């Protein structure tokens, strides 16, 4: 149930991404964890499967973030592949192109200086959704989906604070802090504790990132306690 806010402009894209995961699943903060298979790529490393939640290739200025979504996949669990390779492959130009995919559902948000898109897999169909200019949000459903309570509550506020200068990250993180006044199990919360909803996942960190012709950077901020701000 991760959440991403993205602003797309003619010069590139900026985003704020919040990662929700089981706190007991081992991971590593932002770093170059794939020197052999993906040299130069940096990202948030999942130790168990070896993949990435978020990845950036500073050479190509390509960025990708992986979000889970529901699916109707009909495969035995031992035949299901990890989704962790998707972000890593995306930033080196190897995005999934068609189904069927032996993976659970996902939204793969891809951004580069030339634009952004979302690749969505529900176990049956792989769809592409271009991300138009402006501010958008995505979580476990579709882009800007009003069925997602946190998008309905916060997208107008993020859009009203569109990042048009170097202070964009501080303004968006300020809005994220404001959202954290909600209880972490509130459907509108972005900093989340999903145990009450039947999922053992909590918000662990957030990243701010920017890609353009001149820039390719990402910063991570690990929360002091899972599902809690400050």
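Q: What amino acid sequence fits the structure above?
A:
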């Amino acid at each position: 149930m991760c959440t991403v806010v993205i602003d797309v402009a003619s010069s590139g894209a900026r985003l704020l991404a919040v990662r929700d995961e089981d706190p007991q699943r081992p991971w590593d903060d932002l770093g170059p964890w794939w020197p052999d298979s993906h040299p130069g790529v940096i990202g948030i490393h999942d130790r168990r499967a070896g993949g990435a939640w978020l990845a950036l290739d500073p050479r190509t200025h390509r960025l990708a973030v992986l979000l889970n979504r529901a699916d109707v996949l009909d495969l035995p669990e031992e035949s299901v592949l990890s989704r962790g390779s998707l972000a890593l492959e995306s930033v080196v130009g190897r995005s999934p192109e068609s189904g069927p995919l032996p993976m659970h559902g996902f939204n793969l948000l891809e951004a580069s200086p030339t634009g952004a898109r979302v690749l969505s897999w529900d176990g049956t169909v792989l769809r592409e959704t271009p991300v138009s200019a402006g501010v958008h949000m995505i979580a476990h459903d579709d882009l800007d989906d009003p069925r997602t309570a946190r998008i309905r509550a916060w997208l107008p506020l993020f859009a009203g604070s569109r990042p048009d200068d170097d202070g964009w990250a501080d303004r968006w993180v300020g809005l994220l802090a404001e959202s954290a006044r909600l209880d972490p199990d509130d459907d509108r919360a972005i900093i989340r504790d999903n145990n009450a909803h039947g999922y053992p996942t909590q918000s662990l960190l957030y990243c701010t990132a920017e890609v353009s012709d001149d820039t390719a950077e990402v910063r991570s901020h690990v929360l002091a306690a899972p599902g809690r701000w400050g």
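Q: And what stands out in the fold?
A: The longest helix spans residues 149-160.
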